[in-house]
Amino acid sequence: DKCAVSIRPVIHFFIRHTGNLISCLDSTVFGDLVEIKKQLITVISLCKERGLVHSVKCDMYNLQKAYFLYMYSRYLSGEKKKDDETVDSLGPLEKGQVRNEALRELRVELSKKHSAGELEGFTLYLYGVVLRKLDLLKEAVEVFVEATHALPLHWGAWLELCNLITNIDMLKSLSLPDCWIRDFFMAHMYTELQMIKEALQKYQSLIESGFSKSTYIISQIAVAYHNIRDIDQALALFNELREQDPFRIENMDTFSNLLYVRSMKPELSYLAHNLVEIDKYRVETCCVIGNYYSLRSQHEKAALYFQRALKLNPRCLGAWTLMGHEYMEMKNTSAAIQAYRHAIEVNKRDYRAWYGLGQTYEILKMPFYCLYYYRKAHQLRPNDSRMLVALGESYEKLSQHVEAKKCYWRAYSVGDVERMALLKLAKLHEQLNESDDAAQCYIIYIQDIFSCGEQLEHAEVSTALRYLGQYYFKNKLYDEASLCAQRCCDYNDAREEGKALLRQISQVRDHMEASSTDLFGPLSSNNTPVRRVSPLDLSSFSP
């Protein structure tokens, strides 16, 4: 929807599933549930009359309806002219450089009506969209809040408001209407703010209130699990969703992201073909096809389909971000930067776009820029180890070693999904000649890898074993050094060093035994082992 009022979850929630949602209700938590059903049916009709096909309340005044349609058509006309003025050869990446010339006139006229108290719910919503388009975000938030009070069942106003809320404090400060739909908004908002625990609790409450068969709620829970990278749970829910609604297109782009991460090529291919049969001109379909080609390393084709998605909806957040990834794969950093920046314009809470910008500037060897963008990503995902590791690497390149150490340790503490934080911390300690700290990190790293059974897949285990072997040898802990040397022999890249260390240990022990036969030799304190760190116990693990 070019006018940025695309609210597909509402069609799904309010139109396709009104019947099965309400018919299965057996709770009175939401009050008179029969009345809720009547309200939903009414609002669907009203939105259709106004051309808001992706939204859904009743306006008894035909004059207001006509005024909304007049103003809305002017807005759409401006959007159409804006797109027409965009040079086709530049593609969707340049769309943001052309303005809708009708916005300022619309703002002046709507502002006068607003001051006179003459705007009803739908027109308040349009006024908010105009303000947002003009980057008058504070005023837009106030107007969208007013729109939700005037017309609580218009989901479009709630979603526009959602895109402008930057943090939980801002959310708490808003005076929202006391209406049952507010619970759906809060659950959606918690998901957007990465407050997944609170989001899941809210959705569970909605399920217990009678919405147990709502495919909308199932899809939102699946998205929540996707956001915390619980891939197995998210895949299970999306598969359940497909069984319940095999013709569903909403959220299938997110499903394809999960299949992509798991490299499930046959399943992704089947999904792409299936969606093409249902509706090949949907944004989600284009994104799924783009992911399919990307998984096959056909990045130019992938980028083409993400561009098609953006022609259908220039505010499609996922398409901008994914296209940025494709340009990164094609080493087109300038185009990648543009794509990521457009994603941020659509939604400043998209951590993937901030993270992508950090990676792009890392390729360009601009660590100060990396630091800025990785900080933004970290603020949005404070417990994501990938953001913390990226921050640590940036600090390390800027020789801010204390901050780098904090980031690496924090990444390990919150659950290092890629198991790289401790390794990087150990190498940093090693680089700074902090041998005891480096050894301690390598010990924990090896024990973690062995305990989860990943030691054969992780090439860096041999690096840790080599360091620990030399560390123990220097500290005259020959038994531990020997054990590490033996383990080194299990890895091709460390085998020769392991054998060399075993020979050294053997020579030292032979010398010590020869010295011990001389009962009259002087005692030497140098022969006393010094334990710097706890010895590494590898006896229960086998690579």
From TrEMBL:
Q: Which Pfam families match?
A: ANAPC8, TPR_11, TPR_8
Q: In which pathway does it act?
A: Protein modification; protein ubiquitination
Cite the SMART domains for this sequence: TPR
Q: Name one GO cellular component term.
A: anaphase-promoting complex
TPR repeat segments? 283-316, 317-350
Q: Which residues form the Cdc23 domain?
A: 63-222
GO BP term, pick one: protein ubiquitination
InterPro entries membership: APC8, TPR-like_helical_dom_sf, TPR_rpt
Q: Which UniProt keywords apply?
A: Cell cycle, Cell division, Mitosis, Repeat, TPR repeat, Ubl conjugation pathway
Which residue windows are coiled coil? Answer: none
Report if keyword RNA-binding is assigned. Answer: no
Q: Which family does it belong to?
A: Belongs to the APC8/CDC23 family.
Protein known as: Cyclosome subunit 8
